[in-house]
């Protein structure tokens, strides 16, 4: 894809705030031809659309609740009917409902988290990937935003962690399937950051040697990886260390180490967005 998305048709989910808005701004600044913004809040979508508007860019907004799979399907079909296909899909939208222990969660919270964080991205790729494959040799990119929570277990976020672990494994397997099938013009990138300061995880406690990422830094890392077609980005580097340590240490030894670094208490003061 080169150094930019110039001339591309780009879809960003969760585009009204946080990283999603920054992804939208990045696509517009780099000369995307069509920018499709998905979110739940119509007024917020209109505000972002106005902020990113510029000559030569067509901005489309769709108010879509990713928990409503029928609505998701309908919106995807309508978009395909209008554009034929897209060039870049940024599966950014995500939710976490609380910092409750698993047995304290309402069943609806569990279902909601899994639908938005895992099932919806899969469903979207199911709609758009066939057209991306057929539109060879034009470069295509899929960015799936997972989380370090899917790599390192952390109390008080069990369902969120499970949804992101599933996202991570599915996304990287999808990458392998696309490559094995010979569709070299399509690249799938999985982005797994630790806490990002978007407000979604407000109130979380600091983890030793693991600074909270700024949204700008996180999006820059993810975007550059998307353009380059890199397979995985895990950030910051301490997450790599934690993954390696968890792989070689006995479970109880890893638990003690994680407690020492503050991982297991990082969600105690969570007040972030639901």
Which helices and strands, and how do they pair?
Layout: E1 9-13, H1 18-29, E2 34-39, H2 42-52, E3 58-63, H3 69-83, E4 88-91, H4 107-134, E5 140-145, H5 158-180, E6 186-193, H6 215-228, E7 232-235, H7 237-248, H8 251-261
Parallel strand pairs: 1-2, 1-4, 2-3, 4-5, 5-6, 6-7
General description of the model:
The protein is of the alpha/beta class and 274 residues long. The protein has eight helices and seven strands. A seven-stranded parallel sheet has the order 3-2-1-4-5-6-7, sandwiched between helices. The radius of gyration is 18 Å and the shape is globular.
| Largest sheet report | 7 strands, parallel
Uncertain segments of ≥5 residues (pLDDT<50)?
none
Share of helix, binned: 40-55%
Distance between the termini: 35 Å
Radius of gyration: 18 Å
Strand order of the largest sheet: 3-2-1-4-5-6-7
The oligomeric state is single chain
Provide a concise account of the structure shown:
By secondary structure, the protein is an alpha/beta fold. The chain has a single domain, classed as Rossmann fold.
Defining key terms:
274 residues, seven-stranded parallel sheet, 14% strand, Rossmann fold, globular, single chain, 8 helices
């Amino acid at each position: 894809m080169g150094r930019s998305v110039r001339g591309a048709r780009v879809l960003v989910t969760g585009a009204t705030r946080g990283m999603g808005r920054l992804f939208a701004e990045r696509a517009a600044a780099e000369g995307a031809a069509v920018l499709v913004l998905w979110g739940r809040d119509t007024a917020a979508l209109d505000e972002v659309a106005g902020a990113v508007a510029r000559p030569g860019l067509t901005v489309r907004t769709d108010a879509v609740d990713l928990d409503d799979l029928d609505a998701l399907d309908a919106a995807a079909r309508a978009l395909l009917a209008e554009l034929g296909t897209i060039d870049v899909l940024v599966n950014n939208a995500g939710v976490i409902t609380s910092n409750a222990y698993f047995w304290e969660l309402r069943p609806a919270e569990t279902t909601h988290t899994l639908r938005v964080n895992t099932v919806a991205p899969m469903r979207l790729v199911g709609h758009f990937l066939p057209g991306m494959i057929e539109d060879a040799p034009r470069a295509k990119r899929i960015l799936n935003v997972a989380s370090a929570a899917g790599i390192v277990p952390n109390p008080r976020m069990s369902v969120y962690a499970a949804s992101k672990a599933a996202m991570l494994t599915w996304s990287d397997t999808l990458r392998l399937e696309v490559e094995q099938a010979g569709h070299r013009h399509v690249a799938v990138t999985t982005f797994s950051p630790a806490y990002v300061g978007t407000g979604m995880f407000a109130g979380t406690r600091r983890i030793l040697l693991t600074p909270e990422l700024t949204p700008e830094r996180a999006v820059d890392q993810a975007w550059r990886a998307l353009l380059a077609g890199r397979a995985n980005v895990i950030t910051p580097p301490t997450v790599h260390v934690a993954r390696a340590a968890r792989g070689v240490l006995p479970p109880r030894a890893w638990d003690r180490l994680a407690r020492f670094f503050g991982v297991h208490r990082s969600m105690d003061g969570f007040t972030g967005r639901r």
